[in-house]
Write a structure and sequence with these properties.
rod-shaped, about 50% helix, alpha/beta, 9 helices, 6 strands
């Protein structure tokens, strides 16, 4: 036996969207929604999938199956093989529209029932989440246990399901394994044969039950999907390259800005160093000027004291021995003060200068 790919829209429609496959839908929905007790689905009415709203740019990229259970709760079951732009918004749009369309003009709001959108993706939709099944409801931030069940989005990401046949333990495991591997199987695995609804799904997917025209259409659809995936992959790679180029440009800009800031800092430090050097030079110049003034002042004082001492010596000695005048003029103030004091105390030239006046 050879089986068709149940992820192809045409095959998916026949397996999950026909009146003869209600048992398949019931089993699948109960499994993926983990329903139990009073919530278990026991009967469904399949609505015409051609009523699915078409969004511009999404033509022929998806198929959904509309279902109502015995309690009038609505379900949208969709297989999505291409991660196209706006995909998440379309899912929410379809769910909201299904919810709104329950009311006719003048109908009371209390008759509104729950809408659950079940989406199976053949690609990873939430890379930051590890579970295969992700469920979204309106919840309160303060207390996540408080939520509205009227609108729920459920996602099954097939690439995250990696269990082998021997590891299948639940009905959900078996359904996910069927969706992911049916096209590569040549017989119904024993573990999947335990589920009558899955056996029925295999029977519908058996290529032997399809006409040549249907098989040809399926082959064209798979080729088209492959081409679209290739195009999307090329677009993603181009986007990644553009993003990397933008990041490098941003990095270069930041480095240039950093270099400019460092240059500005270096210039400020250089200006500060020049200013400090100039201030230091000015201080040294002022110090030198002060020292010069002090020396000049001391020299002036010494000269005045020398002239006073010489005048006193001449008055007393009339004639000064050779060399005394030169010694007096060359002496510093301390020496001059010492000579002056000794002169007033009656000291002689010999005592003052060590010179014999008679010689």
């Amino acid at each position: 036996m050879r089986f068709l790919n149940p992820k192809t829209d045409y095959a998916f429609r026949k397996i999950f969207g026909s009146e003869t496959s209600r048992d398949i839908l019931i089993s699948f929905l109960n499994a993926i929604l983990d329903l139990s007790g009073a919530d278990v689905i026991i009967d469904v009415a399949v609505l015409d999938p051609r009523l699915a709203p078409k969004i511009e740019g999404m033509k022929d990229t998806y198929l959904d199956v509309r279902v109502k259970d015995q309690r009038e709760r609505s379900y949208i079951v969709e297989m999505q093989v291409l991660n196209v732009e706006g995909f998440e918004k379309r899912i929410l749009y379809n769910a909201c529209k299904t919810y709104v369309n329950q009311l006719g003009r003048g109908d009371p709001y209390h008759i509104l029932t729950e809408v659950v959108a079940v989406t199976i993706t053949d690609f990873t939709m939430f890379p930051d989440l590890t579970r295969v099944i992700s469920r979204f409801r309106l919840r309160a931030d303060e207390n996540p246990l408080i939520c509205h069940r009227d609108l729920e989005l459920v996602f099954a990401e097939l690439p995250k399901f990696t269990r082998a046949e021997a590891e299948l333990t639940t009905t959900l495991d078996r359904w996910l394994y069927f969706l992911k591997t049916a096209r590569d199987l040549t017989a119904i695995p024993e573990s999947l044969a335990l589920e009558p609804a899955i056996v029925h799904a295999f029977e519908i997917a058996n290529r032997a039950g399809w006409t040549e025209a249907e098989l040809d259409e399926l082959e064209k659809r798979e080729m088209w999907v492959g081409e679209q995936r290739h195009i999307l992959e090329l677009a993603r790679k181009a986007e990644q390259k553009a993003r990397k180029a933008e990041e490098k440009a941003q990095e270069a800009e930041e480095k240039a800005q950093e270099a400019e800031e460092k240059a500005q800092e270096a210039e400020e430090k250089a200006q500060e160093a020049v200013q400090k050097a100039e201030e230091k030079a000015e201080e040294k110049a002022r110090e030198a000027a002060r020292m010069g003034e002090a020396k000049g002042e001391a020299k002036g004082k010494a000269k005045g004291k020398a002239e006073t001492l010489l005048r006193l010596l001449r008055r007393r000695e009339k004639t000064l021995p050779a060399g005394v005048e030169d010694r007096v003029r060359a002496a510093d103030t301390d020496q001059l003060d010492d000579w002056s004091d000794r002169l007033f105390d009656g000291g002689s030239l010999a005592e003052l200068f060590g010179i014999d006046h008679n010689h």
